[in-house]
Amino acid sequence: QVTQFDKVDITDLDEHRKTLNNENSPIKTTFLPFLIIAVTHALREFPDFNSSLSTDKETLIHKKYYHIGVAVDTPGGLVVPIIKDTNKKDMSALSMELEDLSNRAREKKLKPEELKGGTFTISSLGGIGGTYFSPIVNPPQVAILGVSRAKWEPVFSKTKKTFMPRYVLPFSLTYNHKVVDGALAASFTQHLGKVLSKTASFK
């Protein structure tokens, strides 16, 4: 396994998230639904990441569906419920399903089928802290995204010719190097960053 590190400016996206939460929505929108949408977009562009290895590890099986696992920290340890068909769900639906699955994961009330069938996993430490980390791929999946806590950083603005405070999200992509090479992984992270940096991607 190999881990690639990157970061993305999510200042505008975080403002958009706050706006959504101010619109009297019954469900508080966290950053995870945005990540799920962005990851799904990237998986459609780079299908090798939405695949699995056969039992003999000789054949790459591309999936025609997008089932994203989201790691949830519970008193009993890490649990990864699966949000299925993420390409067919909007922000509101993802937010509600995430809250439901997370709550039931902590209460140990998830059904066995809600923990199976994932094609890609997101592990977020944003609520805990830290910078970069190397998440471990969950076989037979071939990749996993690790997300740490966003923080304010001085970023040089070419237009204003000065440093500006920007809200920056560090993330890590771990992948099976037998399936994915570094160039493809870099293209995946660049695409993911572009989607996350534009609020238009989520409207």
TrEMBL record:
Pfam families: 2-oxoacid_dh. One of its GO terms (biological process) is pyruvate decarboxylation to acetyl-CoA. Residues 1-199 form the 2-oxoacid dehydrogenase acyltransferase catalytic domain. The keyword Acyltransferase applies. Its cofactor is (R)-lipoate. One of its GO terms (molecular function) is lipoic acid binding. Keywords: Acyltransferase, Coiled coil, Lipoyl, Transferase. InterPro entries: 2-oxoacid_DH_actylTfrase, 2-oxoacid_DH_E2_comp, CAT-like_dom_sf. Residues 84-111 form a coiled coil. One of its GO terms (cellular component) is cytoplasm. Belongs to the 2-oxoacid dehydrogenase family. This is 2-oxoacid dehydrogenase acyltransferase catalytic domain-containing protein. It comes from marine metagenome. The lineage of its organism: unclassified sequences, metagenomes, ecological metagenomes.
